Amino acid sequence: MYLSFSSLTGFDPRGNQRDRDRERASARKQAAAKGKEDGLTPEQRRERDKKALEEKLAKKAAQAGAGGASQDNKSNEGNATSKK
Question: Pfam families of this UniProt entry (predicted)?
Fold first, then answer.
């Protein structure tokens, strides 16, 4: 008569790796799907992203125009080497 260890104790010594992996995979899928539910069509999403990118670039250009020259000089001061 053969009795396995798991049938006597209710404990499987090999663990439940498959079950845990399935749970983790389903949790990842749910988290990924949750971010896409913004109620927008792909075209609307592209327009939104395009507008956000243009605003970001305009802000960066404004910062570069206002104080970009002083930023460049400060970052290059330490890099200057004298050749004699």
Answer: SERF-like_N (PF04419)
What region, left, alpha or beta, does residue 13 occupy, with left being phi > 0 and alpha being psi -120 to 50 degrees? alpha
Number of C-alpha atoms within 13 angstroms, CB side, residue 77?
6
Q: Identify the residue whose tokens are 């000089």.
A: 73
Tokens standing for residue 11: 């404990």
Q: What is the pLDDT of residues 45-54, one digit of tens each?
A: 999 999 999 9
Measure the CA–CA gap between 69 and 64, rounded to whole angstroms: 7
Chain segment 62-74, per-residue pLDDT in tens: 998 887 655 555 5
CA 50 and chain centroid, separation: 19
Long-range contacts of 39-44 (CB under 8 A, 24+ apart): none
